[in-house]
Design the sequence.
């Protein structure tokens, strides 16, 4: 009961300074919401990458020439296939296309007929015949095409080529397919004017996962001009999204966080003369030092717990229900076409606990500790004021 | 002189030194020995700076003596731990301060309830007590108002109500009439007289003749330069 | 004396909303893990996709994991900083020995 009564008094004392306290809660909530949004979005994106890209090729072999990525001879496939433990080895043909009409970049992908099994997340069908294509949702949107429409692209001889759109990937797949234009492989080779016997790179299937790097080493030794990239490396790339070193947004945000800390510190620690007097009065009329500290503890807890919970709710709603509209501009950068994010709600409870710990505890501490000095002074001072 | 256990308050050679061994050392209370009995109305009389307030805060367990002994209700309070001292202060004393020392933005009711929060009574009982006391002082219709909005006399009554809410045995008042006109001072003295009739011991520090010449005073302690200059019973 | 009750009720309400959101997200994730996630993984396998289609601003930001190591104007390791995407994703960390050391043969 005693504890609840002191909580009650803490609430009434906060209410008495409600303008100050509500503004602290507002700023505090915003801080938690932004920090929470960044962490939720990052975690979701990382998990998405590692879950989806588990389907990526075990090994991608690129060719390097004069220190640059170059087209790889298809004949390399025969030798690579002979390495023990290696399954299917396929050439991939793909490239980039700058669409001058809309100022956006597409990824053009040539597909073997063998690869066109039943494909999910696709409306219509995959291109099977010459002159057909399937497009990602971003391309469909920016070029305003749907199944049955025509898509005109300019080839390497500056001639417009008409393709028939036979399929569009659904919005759900946009994180993978947004800027894709998929053709039959021959069409792509012809469109880009790729030389005979060359491909963009080679994908290698390795049966035993633990042998992937051994196989990569063997390929590298066999063809010194190649660069094998393992799937582990591909997935690891996305672990670097928003990491502390490169996360400029976090850096910018960090300064905001520091500014808030200064504000909070100032507000919480700078016990005003009025508050000091109040503590003196409480002591004089029979409050113990521990009662006063408990009062300050409640004051800090009420503010920080309220802000933390509100901020977290905002962060969840912002990221998972609205697709993080406040953060995606930072992700987007200068990209012209950009996926319409539906973040998969992968949630790390540990991360949430960390946010809680990093916001609530320091605030409570910065409220309680400075009032210590006031709380231990002799109540007699009140009589002399 | 009586034995410590018989008197309600008994001090022996109590000394209070502020800023000891510094250039601005002040010997506010110097070897004071006084006795106050249960039911007394004791007045500490003297000019400002004579040590009245310091002695009052020593007796009221608000500060500790530099040397000497203080017994309150038979207990040697100079040696008690801080939290026990607080408990005694809370249970035995009700304070009326010169500046009232109310929380100006809190309501009258809240101010009166303040000493009860750490006690842990049921809220209904707390309110009952406060309302009864406010009624007794004739300010029950003010209880929702902020203290800031009350007149000086009303604030004084709130301060008295707060001093009474713990049902203390001893009321300690420091210059209670300092900010009141004659009429209001007389009202206050009537309230204190009533309380004395109900069996409360009252200790007042004052240099107001209207107070120390009042008929209800049973014990006058004259102070000067931190010492007791004269003590008489009436 | 009702203030603490209001506070406790409001806090409990917020915790309940939060738990509700968490449970909803978990349920939704279950559903997605049963349908959309495997479908996307299959798509990645069938089309041989190695990267998320997020940054289309430059060729080395579209496929960060396949990026040209020595592309023009790209000075490893901080080259990605040329584009806004570089402020969000660090350069790929490859298992260096496989690709940078010349082979003994």
Sequence:
């Amino acid at each position: 009961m005693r504890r609840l009564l002191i909580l009650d008094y803490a609430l009434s004392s906060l209410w008495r300074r409600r303008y100050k306290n509500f503004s602290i809660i507002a700023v505090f909530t915003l801080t938690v919401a932004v920090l929470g949004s960044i962490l939720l979005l990052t975690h979701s994106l990382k998990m998405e990458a590692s879950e989806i890209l588990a389907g990526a090729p075990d090994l991608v072999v690129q060719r390097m020439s004069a220190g640059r990525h170059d087209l790889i001879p298809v004949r390399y496939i025969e030798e690579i296939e002979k390495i023990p433990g290696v399954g299917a080895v396929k050439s991939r043909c793909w490239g980039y296309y700058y669409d001058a009409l809309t100022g956006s970049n597409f990824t053009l992908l040539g597909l073997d007929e063998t690869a066109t099994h039943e494909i999910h997340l696709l409306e219509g069908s995959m291109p099977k015949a010459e002159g057909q294509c399937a497009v990602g949702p971003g391309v469909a949107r920016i070029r305003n095409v749907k199944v049955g429409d025509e898509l005109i692209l300019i080839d390497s001889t500056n001639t417009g080529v008409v393709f028939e759109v036979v399929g569009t990937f659904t919005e759900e797949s946009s994180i993978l397919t947004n800027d894709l234009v998929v053709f039959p492989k021959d069409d792509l080779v012809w469109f880009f004017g790729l030389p005979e016997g060359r491909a963009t790179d080679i994908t290698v299937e390795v049966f035993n996962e633990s042998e992937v790097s051994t196989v990569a080493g063997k390929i590298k030794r066999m063809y010194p001009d190649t660069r094998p990239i393992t799937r582990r490396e591909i997935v690891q790339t996305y672990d670097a999204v928003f990491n502390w070193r490169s996360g400029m947004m976090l850096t910018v945000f960090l300064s905001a966080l520091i500014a808030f800390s200064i504000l909070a510190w100032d507000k919480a620690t700078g016990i005003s003369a009025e508050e000091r007097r109040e503590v003196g009065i409480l002591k004089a009329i029979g409050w113990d030092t521990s009662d006063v500290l408990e009062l300050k503890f409640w004051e800090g807890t009420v503010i920080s717990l309220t802000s933390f919970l509100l901020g977290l709710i905002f962060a969840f709603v912002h990221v998972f229900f609205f697709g993080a509209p406040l953060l995606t501009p930072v992700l987007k950068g200068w990209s012209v076409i950009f996926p319409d994010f539906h973040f998969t709600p992968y949630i790390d409870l540990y991360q949430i606990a960390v946010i809680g710990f990093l916001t609530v505890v320091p605030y409570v501490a910065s409220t309680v500790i400075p009032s210590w000095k006031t709380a231990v002074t002799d109540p007699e001072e009140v009589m002399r004021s | 002189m009586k034995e410590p256990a018989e008197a309600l308050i008994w001090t022996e050679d109590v000394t209070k030194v502020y800023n000891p061994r510094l250039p601005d050392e002040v010997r506010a209370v110097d070897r004071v020995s006084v006795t106050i009995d249960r039911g007394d109305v004791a007045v500490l009389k003297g000019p400002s700076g004579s040590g009245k307030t310091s002695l009052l805060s020593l007796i009221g367990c608000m500060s500790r003596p530099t040397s000497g002994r203080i017994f309150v209700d038979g207990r040697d309070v100079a040696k008690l731990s801080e939290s026990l001292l607080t408990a005694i202060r809370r249970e035995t004393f009700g304070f009326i301060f010169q500046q009232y020392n109310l929380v100006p933005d809190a309501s009258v009711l809240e101010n009166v309830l303040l000493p009860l929060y750490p006690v842990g009574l049921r809220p209904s009982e707390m309110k009952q007590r406060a309302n009864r006391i406010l009624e007794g002082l004739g300010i029950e219709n003010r209880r929702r108002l902020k203290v800031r909005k009350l007149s000086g006399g009303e604030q004084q009554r709130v301060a008295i109500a707060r001093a009474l809410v713990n049902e203390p045995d001893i009321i300690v008042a420091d210059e209670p009439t300092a900010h009141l006109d004659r009429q209001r001072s007389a009202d206050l003295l009537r309230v204190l007289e009533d309380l004395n009739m109900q069996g409360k011991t009252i200790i007042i520090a004052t240099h107001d003749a209207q107070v120390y010449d009042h008929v209800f005073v049973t014990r006058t302690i004259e102070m000067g330069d931190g010492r007791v200059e004269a003590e008489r019973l009436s | 004396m009702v203030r603490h009750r209001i506070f406790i009720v409001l806090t409990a309400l917020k915790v309940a909303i939060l738990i509700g959101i968490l449970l909803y997200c978990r349920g939704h994730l279950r559903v997605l893990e049963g349908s959309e996630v495997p479908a996307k993984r299959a798509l990645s396998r069938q089309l041989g996709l190695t990267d998320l289609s997020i940054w289309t601003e430059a060729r080395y930001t579209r496929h960060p994991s396949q990026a040209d190591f020595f592309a023009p104007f790209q000075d490893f390791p901080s080259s990605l900083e040329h584009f806004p995407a570089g402020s969000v994703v660090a350069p790929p960390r490859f298992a260096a020995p496989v690709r940078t050391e010349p082979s003994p043969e």
User: Anything to note?
Assistant: The CA atoms of residues 221 and 231 of chain B lie 4 Å apart. Chain B has a mean pLDDT of 89. Chain B touches chain A through 35 residues (CB under 8 Å).
